[in-house]
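Re: the 152-residue chain
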Amino acid sequence: MPHYNLPHNHGQNIEKVLNKMPSAEGFKDISFLFQQLGDPTRLRILWLLCHCEECVCNLAAAVDMSAPAVSHHLRILKKSGIISSRRDGKEVYYSLSDTPQAKLLHHAIDALFEISCPTERPDETCSASFISSRAAANGNASISACLVPSRK
């Protein structure tokens, strides 16, 4: 357990929090992931791929862009591990990766847009309950208050 030579003691147990803080490399990885989502076009493509598997041509038509431009965005999303692809003959289909991080992004995006996932079954939900349960499972009960917009 490293000792943090903090200049002030405000009685808030910051050392306990600092001991649980992820490494600088971990923050670098997550920062890279969020950078990929900083582009509105990429976010639109990701939203589509959260809900269906699709080829470049259809994605290009859906976001009103050229196929090479969409391919560029897909390469970036695939490099970050958010999406995956599969080949069927000459056609390549893209979809959301089957990883906990990609699934959490799917649910967070749907919650931020305050919509229900169009592909979830009625007994499942892309809502605050999912995010809250994931946060609680990871010991971060306060995260749901940060991620989920209030419904007024």
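Helices lie at 14-20, 24-36, 40-51, 56-63, 67-79, 100-112, 128-137, 143-147.
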